[in-house]
Amino acid sequence: MRSATKVEVDRPTLETLVREILGTESPVADVRPLTDGMFNAAYAVTLADGSRAVVKVAPPAGTPLLTYEQDLMPAEVDFFRRAAGVVPVPQVLGVDLTRRHVDRDVLVLQHLDGAPLHNLRRDLSPEQTAAVRRELGGAVARLRTVTGTRFGYVRPDGALSADRWSVAFAAMVDALLADADRYGVRLPRSAAGLSERVTAAAPELDTVEVPVLTHFDLWAGNVFVARSAGTARLEALIDGERAFWGDPLAELASTALFANPAKDFDFLDGYAQAAGEPLVLDDRARLRLTLYRTYLYLIMTIEAAPRGYSGAEAVATAVYVRKKLKRELKALRASLG
Question: Tell me, what's the pLDDT at 37?
């Protein structure tokens, strides 16, 4: 699938960006477009001196976006800098938010040696996969130690953040529903009905009292794995631009994407070892997780419109996600009445 947000830059511009942001005189020897992501244009760059980096270029100004997607690159930089030393993430080598050289934000990151877990599904043994899942669980447990002062997305206008998690989450959902209306996306339930259910869940959401840095996009495509001598290890968590401050339980919406997190035994073992206590998935936790999965599936349903997804793969994905969304809405209705 192609995305309207991934607008390429030419090689001379890319070379200028690398030279200016990294402050290097070593010329660019090789550029390889990275095709896995669906939001930013990204390139693996090798310099003549042998050093390597990944350059991410945000969509141009005026590109149709969802409300929460404004200022995503500064959010990603913030995530990586706060998470560094707590969980494995790529090092931020440089960033340019001034738009002096190109009318877009630019981020330069450490080049990783491994590959996404999603791409290695057929190459890893069950034991190797289990080891990586345990490490991922441990990383999610450690990430909950990174706390903030407000819930929601930290953006300059403050519109999607609040002092209470229920208020911030309601604003996040309402912004998505407004995006659906703006882009003409039909949803399985009315916007008013969805908002009412989030409001009804406010007492449970407000049991979350401390804002925790939450990646919220830890599906297997954003979990990098390095292999050597028959072993596999978690190399880094990438693509932190979707992060918000909220309930760490929300991570399970993506770590167990389209699956039952209670059956992700290796992940849960790793989490318990790092946290010193098991992750409890009781009825109250399941209600919150249903809300977070609903939110994630709404994003996946609505973002297809401004990004202009088309083709057989896009249609099949949309049908599957909509089916999952309907299931979560049904579960939400059963839980809240």
Answer: 87
β-strands 231-237, 223-228 pairing: antiparallel
Specify whether the backbone of 104 is left (phi greater than 0), alpha (psi in -120 to 50) or beta.
beta
Looking at domain 11-110, its CATH superfamily turns out to be Phosphorylase Kinase; domain 1 (3.30.200.20)
Averaged pLDDT, groups of 10, the chain, 337 residues long: 90 96 95 93 97 97 96 96 98 96 96 97 96 99 98 91 98 98 95 93 97 99 96 98 98 98 98 98 97 98 95 92 96 89
Distance CA 40, CA 100 (A): 18
Q: With contact defined as beta carbons under 8 Å apart, do 89 and 100 qualify?
A: no
Identify the bridge partners of residue 41 per DSSP, sorted by sequence position: 57
* Pairwise CA distance, residues 211 & 247, whole Å: 7
Whole-model pTM: value is 0.96
Architecture of domain 115-336: Alpha-Beta Complex (3.90)
| pLDDT digit string, tens, across residues 97-110 | 999 889 999 999 99
The Cα–Cα gap between 68 and 175 comes to: 8
Q: CA 269, CA 280: separation in Å to the nearest integer?
A: 12
User: What is the domain partition of the chain in residue ranges?
Assistant: 11-110, 115-336
For the chain, the 3-state helix, strand and coil shares in percent, each to the nearest 5, are: 45, 15, 35
